[in-house]
Specification:
single chain; mainly alpha; Growth Hormone, Chain: A; 18 helices; globular; disordered N terminus
């Protein structure tokens, strides 16, 4: 369905038929990477769907303690995102580095069997799992970027995130099935999650291809001087350098000397601060509507379903009208979801609207933000640059989760959720001003 008719769309000659490039969908490499993400997300979401319930309602941890664990779940990726991105760029081994990250996350699933009811041990295992995610994310997104022409990046990331969200949709359902079959044994969920994650590593090794360095340099030489995403505000940060030159730490740190990259990194930090953990959203819905514990994992399914349906259409829309408006629209939807949590609407309408807006937020931001960043970054440091953007989000998310847990504990969930909605509004305006500083952004 998603396979492109163009084998290497990025390397099409400048005089090639532009209509042929427009009708191409996405490359086979994007489909292969999407398949790996689909399988991995089935594994990850099996654990994620039951973790808030297990910690807060099972082990009776406080909202602040859950905020710390939830922040670690994403924030632990921060340092290794940068390390993974730099190593992948320096040694031109993006597939190998991504594979190591997927393997680390798979092995971590077995660690949950040894953690038992110890919250610190669970936090440590989750940190290892997220370190694996941190290592793999930037190389994977760089592989997608290199397999796609600049004008189709929104579509490519939309397709990839659609496949990813299929896994997120299926994961909680698989977890429920395993729990039902194994007499509500969490150990059975962890073992099954490990087996599925191992399958993803096999698919990556067999079907994902990495383009040689020489091909990347030829593609970079054919890229237009200014990408359609940048206009005047986000001009390319630097001209591509020779593939024979090793990527140095000095060059990697030098990325932030370029104003467009610096503005994007700052924006990613702001956007991360505006986001609270999914588990908090689901816990507030569960408490307000007094949902049965059996239905709790299905809240994640609702978000994933909306994400699944909207990721590809919003990716295509971002290519047509501009990526920044779509990203900011996604955060606006997130703010509305926070307001709904304790608004006048209740019952099934509340559940449907909140989960739909939550899924729309992910569909409009997850891949589209990376598509926004891709054309700004120099080809030989693209993985490192993507890691910088993602690290800013991850560190800010860690802070956000802890602060929201503290606000919940001090003021209660209703006041905390309204404060979060106000924070989203401030961040949307600040991000728009930051990225439009030197002109309009598409």
């Amino acid at each position: 369905m998603y396979l492109s008719t163009v084998t290497s769309p990025v390397t099409a000659p400048p005089g090639g038929d532009p209509r042929r490039r427009r009708i191409a969908l996405v490359s086979g490499n994007v489909v292969a990477l999407g398949t790996v993400s689909l399988i991995t997300d089935v594994s990850a979401e099996m654990v994620t769907a039951v973790l808030p319930l297990y910690l807060v309602l099972g082990l009776h941890v406080s909202p602040l303690a859950y905020g710390v664990v939830d922040g670690v779940y994403t924030g632990a990726t921060a340092v290794l995102r940068l390390a993974g991105g730099f190593v992948a760029d320096r040694f031109r081994s993006r597939k190998l580095v991504a594979g190591f990250g997927y393997t680390l996350s798979a092995v971590a699933k077995l660690g949950l069997l040894l953690a038992g009811r110890s919250v610190p041990a669970i936090g440590a295992v989750i940190a290892v799992d997220r370190l694996g995610k941190g290592v793999r994310t930037a190389p994977r997104d760089a592989l997608i970027t290199e397999s796609t022409p600049p004008e189709a990046l929104g579509r490519a990331f939309g397709v990839h995130r659609t496949m990813d969200s299929i896994g997120a949709f299926l994961g909680p359902l698989v977890a429920l099935a395993v729990l039902a079959a194994a007499g509500e044994s969490y150990d059975a969920v962890f073992v099954t999650s490990f087996c599925i994650a191992a399958l993803a590593v096999v698919v990556l090794a067999l079907f994902v291809r990495e383009r040689p360095a020489a091909a990347l340099e030829r593609a970079a030489a054919l890229e237009p001087a200014s990408a359609p995403e940048s206009a005047a505000a986000l001009e390319p940060a630097a001209a591509p350098e020779s593939a024979a030159d090793k990527v140095s730490l000095k060059a990697a740190f030098g990325l932030l000397r370029d104003a467009p990259v610096r503005r994007l990194a700052a924006a990613s930090c702001l956007l991360g601060l505006a986001t609270i953990g999914d588990g908090f959203v689901y816990l507030m819905l569960q408490r307000r509507e007094e949902l049965s514990l059996v239905w709790f994992p299905m809240l994640a399914v609702g978000t994933s379903l909306a994400y699944l349906l909207l990721a590809a259409p919003l990716g295509i829309l971002a290519d047509r009208i501009g990526r920044l408006p779509v990203v900011l629209g996604g955060y606006t939807a997130l703010g509305l979801a926070y307001l709904l949590l304790f608004g006048p609407v209740g019952g099934w309408p509340l559940l449907v609207l909140t989960l739909a807006l939550h899924g729309l937020f992910y569909a409009a931001t997850d891949g589209v933000l990376i598509a926004l960043a891709g054309p700004v970054l120099p080809a030989r440091l693209r993985t490192t640059g993507i890691a910088v953007v993602q690290t800013g989000q991850a560190l800010a998310y860690l802070v956000s989760s802890v602060l929201f847990g503290l606000a919940w504990q001090a003021w209660g969930p209703q006041t905390a959720s309204r404060a979060a909605a106000a924070g989203v509004a401030v961040v949307v305006v600040a991000t728009l001003l930051l990225l439009r500083k030197r002109g309009p952004v598409r």
